[in-house]
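Hey, resending since the last one bounced:
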Amino acid sequence: MKKIYLILIVLLAGLFSSCEKGEGTLTPSGIEEGYHMPQGNNPFDATIMGYYEKYGSCFLYNFTDKDTYWTPSGWKNGVTSETMTGGIPGYLVTPAEPEYIPQQLALIEKCWLNLYSEAFLKKFLPLKIMLCSSVSTVTLLFSPSPAHYGLTPVEAYFNYDNICVNYGNESVLAMNTSKELALNRTLSRLFVELIVSRGISSPSDLPAFSTVVSYSGLSSLKTVSAGLARGFFPMPSSTTPTIDWKKFMLLMVSYPESYLNRNKAITNDSWDNSEAAWEGILNPTKDTKGLMKKRYDMVRNYFIEKYNMDLQSIGNRFNY
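The structure tokens again:
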């Protein structure tokens, strides 16, 4: 009898795939880890299984609070309040409405997956993509009065090992080019944030990136021009190779080459660490020693050669 039970267990195990990805994951004590795929027998589940088999990532429409909010440093679900007391900053999501998931998946393909190489997605796509009907941040808001912790709807949100994507609702039917480009930009920036925060890609992948400049004496660089001349983004006193690596990636997925190479003089040399200062940052007018362009080319060529992915092709989709 025991032999029959064992055979049945093995056979049943083969009916499901457990969602895992190469990088190790931490789990909260006492909570079972694992996302069995497929989650249902809807026609769109075949599409989701195709993503899993191709990239090793789970596109989840049935998920628990733990699946999205938990991190090793604590839970990140926010709490709203009518005053400044009792609220907790974070974010809140609601799972997608099943009838809109096919259109939501098509939107994610168009604004995210189809724009990256297969090798890049296999390496960097997060373990979990949450299909949501609402995604909102919870922050301290001062309007309307009184100050309170309230909700602000967003297109997507990243937390630890997952990215939550909105539009699993009827609004997906009203998408246009402008909205699609905005979603593309948001997802690409969150993708970079997740990749670097998880340490899946870092300056250690390309040692020359850090050694072509000197990270000593940065606190003495008191102007934008002084930092750029040394090969650093404006106001670099507290920067690190990892921060710079992320900024060059964000630069490429956020802005077109025409914007980065524009002849634009420094407007506020004493203090400007906003992304507005990235306009013309690769042009000799700002990049007087050519070190910013040199580091930019290093990062760009690394991803082209390693993953057949030109990150600048993402930024070139936008008009600035």
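The longest strand covers residues 128-141.

Sorry for the duplicate.
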